[in-house]
Automatic annotation (TrEMBL):
Pfam families: Glycos_transf_2. The keyword Transferase applies. Belongs to the glycosyltransferase 2 family. This is Bifunctional apolipoprotein N-acyltransferase/polyprenol monophosphomannose synthase. GO terms for molecular function: transferase activity. Keywords: Transferase. InterPro entries: Glyco_trans_2-like, Glycosyltransferase_2, Nucleotide-diphossugar_trans. The gene is lnt_2. Residues 34-158 form the Glycosyltransferase 2-like domain. It comes from Streptomyces griseorubiginosus.
Amino acid sequence: MSSVLRPAAVGQDAPPAGQYRPISTHLAIAPPVSVVIPAMNEAENLPYVFKTLPDWIHEVVLVDGNSTDDTVAVARELWPEVKVVKQHGKGKGDALITGFEACTGDIVVMIDADGSADGNEIVSYVSALVSGADFAKGSRFANGGGTDDMTFIRKLGNWALCTIVNRKFGARYTDLCYGYNAFWRHCLDKIDLDCTGFEVETLMNIRVVKAGLKVQEIPSYEYLRIHGASNLRAVRDGFRVLRVILGERSNRRALRRRAHHSPLLDSRRGEVS
């Protein structure tokens, strides 16, 4: 079994062999991996989510968006060491930023709580990161990916928005609006997240390119939400994403000037239990 270190760790003392985490038959890693799951009233879906999470991850951070069902209790039953963070704001972006702050791992994986993503794919994301990528971006339209949960209108909108981002910012994305991603935690200092809505995923994809970070797309398969109904609305949400794209276009230079000065997170966003 080979063992892989983050390139930035070259020159530092290697950890004892016992600290490596085997993640496949040919790969072991030293960096701890945190998985962030924003959830609101997802008690029925969490068993499917947690069932696919690999046992070698360092921690699971569940961000509870004031659930009125048994989301927190179910999470603790399924993963006794789960770190539960109470979200005080609103929106997926706010939930993710709150979760990122609570992470202690060097690698952060963000995954949805509706059962649409397969946790077994995390190994592919982590492998890309320890091999040199800064940001591993899930794609349903890369070779090997797919989706059961997109209408023709949503696919068309995603393609159009993705094309705009590629042309305006020099990216080479095949997918734009997908929430299954992983990255080295230090990347957060360079992208200055300030979006509270679900558009946060698009914002991240744009800012990692603007920051000059190395991005690798990971083929991913999106399944149907298992229980409950999605709040996504193709036309309304498409315009919200477009506003983020256009706003980033006009603020690129300002973002670069702020990149080394603005703190990412407010330490008072969440309470950990």
